[in-house]
């Protein structure tokens, strides 16, 4: 292997550089020092197993409740209510109580703008900012229960706005700043948002990128918005409607910096977050107050082993995704974390930017996505090696299955061969982490999310809903309600029941394929619509991708099943060659043959791709997920479908141009 991942391999497979999901045998037991200081201990599993609901009540007691609950769980499947009768305020829990406990001077957010400007926000600062914003929302006519759309870049006001909404009980609907006016309009409309909070623009790739024009367009097309509150970030010119538009610095800055909070019911709606489903209309996933905050603070404390007095935590997600909601805003702040928040892109102004920030702020816990890790692999390990990353002690991964090679690279190059890696499986719908190792407790297996967290019940079932034995594969289901679970799809209970609870009645169907290994550990295999069926054999796109990525000449790979007259489906792979191997594109056929044989050797002849296309880029959504649907169009010689959710809509043109005339 060119990147030296074999050096710490513990199995013969590792020595040979093999690592597809079926044969991954490397193991990373926790170090004695880490285990001794870890928040998580093995008895957590036993306690949760002995009394699951009681265990969640114990976690809920870590929060401040204004009124204690009378009933921990009311389960009228598929509708759950947690901590019934209890009241609390999320913003008080995330901010004020830390100040009252004497931590007002602790930094809550080290914010870094892309151009290099910085802001340091303590918990006392955050308390004043949230109070002012809450007062401003009230002045602008927002009342408890009204929906507020938030369309902001990664600036501190994004977190402040969310907390201010939570404080007054106005559910927010954060829309990722990279989405189009169209996407924003449909989300404003679906939730009938009364207020939009936005900015003139934000910095992306070294230049100001406008946001306000998309809001103007969306507001013009919808009927519910009364006011637009605009943060000045870039100073660029904006169109202004005196009847609707107000500046944040004019309205928020002059408000009193104290605000008396009202406790909200544990089941009061906290936010709506839209996610794509199988139809064109996005689903407004609804989360509520007490159970959600319990779930995200508990998981953040144990899975990232947070020590609020000494850690510097950094989640590199955008606030527009659920990861940003649960693991930048609510979980970390409820736990009094000190965190880094970065506005920009990882390669601006240079490819070492993230590692430079990690070094400067002494980041100890980093939570990021496999797509970013693979990008860093592509750029070369010399870049991170130029920085001192020795403060790092826990690394996390989220968003898609992490290939064993990327996992091992992440641990070796970024984690200095020392840090545990927590591969965290969860979804917008689950609210918080569900399946993940516990650092200091679990012996890690690269590529596997391993076990449901204490308090969570998951199973892998076959087509008829029967649990598969160890060694078997099927569908991932969640078998018991959990506090952070979605409470429904906004305005569409029927779709909620149909989408999640009808495939396997009484159980939540996550839409992911999974396998249980001989130890009963869970390996996520990607969305079930990404599972191929070749000559009656079920083969995961992830498995083939992992095999391809384990080849030294491959940086990234995406695999789809294309309709085939003989085998039902055939495997078509798109690969990006690694740095040096870019010249490989020129090698053409020879490289393709080599890779086909490699996959055949790694998984078996059945998995040998029918076709491998060497490309420069892959089509990805703005959250970094590969859009296999578009690749399937290419593989099946169809005209390429809707590309509006692509981060870069020109990628498909590029791929089409690179296609051999007849592959
Ligand atoms: C948090 C988030 C959810 C889907 C989920 C699955 C995939 C997320 C994963 C993972 C394998 C992991 N996914 N984490 N697959 N291993 N550690 O990403 O939420 O955007 O709603 O996506 O992402 O397919 O079903 P969301």
TrEMBL record:
One GO term of the biological process aspect: acetyl-CoA biosynthetic process from acetate
Pfam family, one: ACAS_N
Catalytic activity: acetate + ATP + CoA = acetyl-CoA + AMP + diphosphate
Binding-site residues, ATP: 399-401, 423-428, 512, 527, 538
Top-rank EC class of the record's enzyme: ligase
PTM notes: Acetylated. Deacetylation by the SIR2-homolog deacetylase activates the enzyme.
E.C. code: 6.2.1.1
Cofactor(s) the record lists: Mg(2+)
Name under which the protein is recorded: Acetyl-coenzyme A synthetase
Source organism of the structure: Motilibacter rhizosphaerae
């Amino acid at each position: 292997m060119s990147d030296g991942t074999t050096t710490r391999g513990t199995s013969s497979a590792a020595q040979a550089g093999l690592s597809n999901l079926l044969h991954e045998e490397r193991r990373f037991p926790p170090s004695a020092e880490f285990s001794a200081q870890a928040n998580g201990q093995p008895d957590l599993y036993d306690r949760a197993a002995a009394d699951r609901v009681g265990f969640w009540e114990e976690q809920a007691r870590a929060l401040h409740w204004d009124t204690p609950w009378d009933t921990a769980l009311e389960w009228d499947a598929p509708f759950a209510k947690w901590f019934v009768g209890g009241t609390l305020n999320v913003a008080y829990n995330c901010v004020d109580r830390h100040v009252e406990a004497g931590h007002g001077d602790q930094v809550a957010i080290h914010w870094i703008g892309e151009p290099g400007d910085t802001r340091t926000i303590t918990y006392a600062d955050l308390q004043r900012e949230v109070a002012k914003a809450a007062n401003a929302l009230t002045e602008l006519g927002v009342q408890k229960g009204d929906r507020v759309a938030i369309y902001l870049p990664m600036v501190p006001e994004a977190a402040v706005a969310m907390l201010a909404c939570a404080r007054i009980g106005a559910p927010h609907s954060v829309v990722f700043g990279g989405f189009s006016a169209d996407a924003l309009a449909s989300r404003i409309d679906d939730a009938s948002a009364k207020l939009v909070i936005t900015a003139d623009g934000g910095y992306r790739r070294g230049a100001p990128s406008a946001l306000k024009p998309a809001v103007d367009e969306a507001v013009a097309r919808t009927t519910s918005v009364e006011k637009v509150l605009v943060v000045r970030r870039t100073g660029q010119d904006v169109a202004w409607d005196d009847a609707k538009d107000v500046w944040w610095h004019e309205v928020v800055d002059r408000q009193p910096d104290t605000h008396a909070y009202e406790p909200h019911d544990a089941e009061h709606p906290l936010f709506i977050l839209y996610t794509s489903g199988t139809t064109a209309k996005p689903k407004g996933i609804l989360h509520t107050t007490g159970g959600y905050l319990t779930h995200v603070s508990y998981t953040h404390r144990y899975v990232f082993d947070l020590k609020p007095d000494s850690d510097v935590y950094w989640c590199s997600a955008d606030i527009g995704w659920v990861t940003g909601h649960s693991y930048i805003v609510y979980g970390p702040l409820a736990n009094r974390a000190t965190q880094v928040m970065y506005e920009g892109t990882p390669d601006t102004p240079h490819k070492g930017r993230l590692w430079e920030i990690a070094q400067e702020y002494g980041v100890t816990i980093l939570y990021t996505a496999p797509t970013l890790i693979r990008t860093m692999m592509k750029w070369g390990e010399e870049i991170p090696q130029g920085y001192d990353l020795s403060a790092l002690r826990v690394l996390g991964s989220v968003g898609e299955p992490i290939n064993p090679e990327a996992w091992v690279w992440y641990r070796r190059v970024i984690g200095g061969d020392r840090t545990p890696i927590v591969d965290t499986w969860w979804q917008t719908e689950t609210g918080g982490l569900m399946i993940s190792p516990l650092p200091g407790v679990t012996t890690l297996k690269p590529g596997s999310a391993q076990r449901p967290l204490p308090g969570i019940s998951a199973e892998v079932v076959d087509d008829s809903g029967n649990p598969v034995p160890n060694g078997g594969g099927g569908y991932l289901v969640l078998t018991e309600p959990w506090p952070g679970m979605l409470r429904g799809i906004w305005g569409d209970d029927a779709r909620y029941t149909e989408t999640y609870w009808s495939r396997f009645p009484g159980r939540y169907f996550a839409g992911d394929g999974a396998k249980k290994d001989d130890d009963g550990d869970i390996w996520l295999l990607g969305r079930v619509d990404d599972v191929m069926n070749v000559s009656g054999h079920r083969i995961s796109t992830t498995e083939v991708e992992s095999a391809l990525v384990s080849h030294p000449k491959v940086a990234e790979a995406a695999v789809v099943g294309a309709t085939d007259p003989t085998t039902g489906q055939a495997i078509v792979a798109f690969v990006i060659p690694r740095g040096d191997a870019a010249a490989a594109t020129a090698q053409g056929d020879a490289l393709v043959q080599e890779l086909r044989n490699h996959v055949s050797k790694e998984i078996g002849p059945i998995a040998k791709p029918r076709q491998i296309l060497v490309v420069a880029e892959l089509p990805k959504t703005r959250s970094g997920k590969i859009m296999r649907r578009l690749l399937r169009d290419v593989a099946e010689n169809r005209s390429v479908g809707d590309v509006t959710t692509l981060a870069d809509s020109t990628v498909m043109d590029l791929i089409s141009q690179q296609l051999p005339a007849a592959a």
